[in-house]
């Protein structure tokens, strides 16, 4: 053996990731099915060309212009406004959350969430040697707030990860949840951060405000967002957070130098200038989602209420057979979530038609 084995706790593990298959209808990774227009692509290309002329230099380590643009974008969600020093960005919100655990987790500390939830959370904990504790969601995938508060007070985590809407169930947190859990996480020494992961925030049904509004009230609150979903820019790899400036400063200690390339920064800034266009299909996708929920229920299936751009449905004695049957018909969805359930991302009207057609056929063959 001329090199050491992989770390003990990683031995035998598979890398995270959905199958990347070249099929006509891809409804498996919660992407926005609508790409940018030619005008938007041209603007991004021009911005990247400009950046290319200075590629001999390292990029702006503090990504100041991008943080200002993201702060302006987030300020639409709160009467209090968001300042650039409250914002931090990285290569996807996955990297943002890993950086949070690098800075605030670690050996002897605990991170927690409530299952079923996003399966990357335990991986951030594992990779930062943070103890992972998982509570449970209720039968309908909502969070039992009293039980969650008690679990936080008992486990005293340094970081609580709370997606809203939750992946893979689509469940949004009720407005009172964030304040309640921020207070619970501030009730012990030295306290915990509450990270509200709003990767799918823009798809929420009306009435539930963004947790961004609560930033001035709770210093231990962090809200993460991404350009990967509603913003239709998954390929860009740009996620960000809003929090107290001291939290951003702490992350600056652990981030790799120049982690956001000049190309990424330029492309993200250009994409943000086209926010109205890139977000323009969100209403349509919400309507398509609600139609999908209704249709699946009409087929006699159990469907979780969804505030996201995906729907969790079931239950199947052999969910893999259903997944495979759909794939055989050119429709790729995701085999994820509790036993017996499947998740479909919301695509274009045509893609959803193809999904429904394929489901109808598969349900006739698979019990
Ligand atoms: N949070 C949740 C709940 C997600 O589902 C995802 C993507 N699947 C992410 C964060 C990470 O997205 P990205 O790194 O593309 O920003």
Automatic annotation (TrEMBL):
Its cofactor is pyridoxal 5'-phosphate. NCBIfam families: hisC (TIGR01141), PRK03317.1 (NF002877). GO terms for biological process: L-histidine biosynthetic process. Its EC number is 2.6.1.9. InterPro entries: Aminotrans_II_pyridoxalP_BS, Aminotransferase_I/II_large, HisP_aminotrans, PyrdxlP-dep_Trfase, PyrdxlP-dep_Trfase_major, PyrdxlP-dep_Trfase_small. Pathway: Amino-acid biosynthesis; L-histidine biosynthesis; L-histidine from 5-phospho-alpha-D-ribose 1-diphosphate: step 7/9. PANTHER family: HISTIDINOL-PHOSPHATE AMINOTRANSFERASE, HISTIDINOL-PHOSPHATE AMINOTRANSFERASE-RELATED. Residues 25-352 form the Aminotransferase class I/classII large domain. This is Histidinol-phosphate aminotransferase. It is an enzyme of class 2 (transferase). Homodimer. GO terms for molecular function: histidinol-phosphate transaminase activity; pyridoxal phosphate binding.
